[in-house]
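ok so I'm stuck.
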Amino acid sequence: MTGPRILFVEDEPSIFEPFSKALAREGFEPVVATTVAKAIEIAERIDPALVLLDLNLPDGDGRDVARA
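replied:
not stuck anymore, here's the structure
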């Protein structure tokens, strides 16, 4: 059984890789999105328990994800 899903919106692998490993170690199921568009698509599909947002993304602002 997996833990709560955490949508991690971050485009830098040097940040999302270790952070995702730490979340998984603590029993969460991290799901990474590297763009605003992908984050919105994933959020609609998985209904995450929490969303961690980077504000500077290649195709917009992380706040766009929060608004959607």
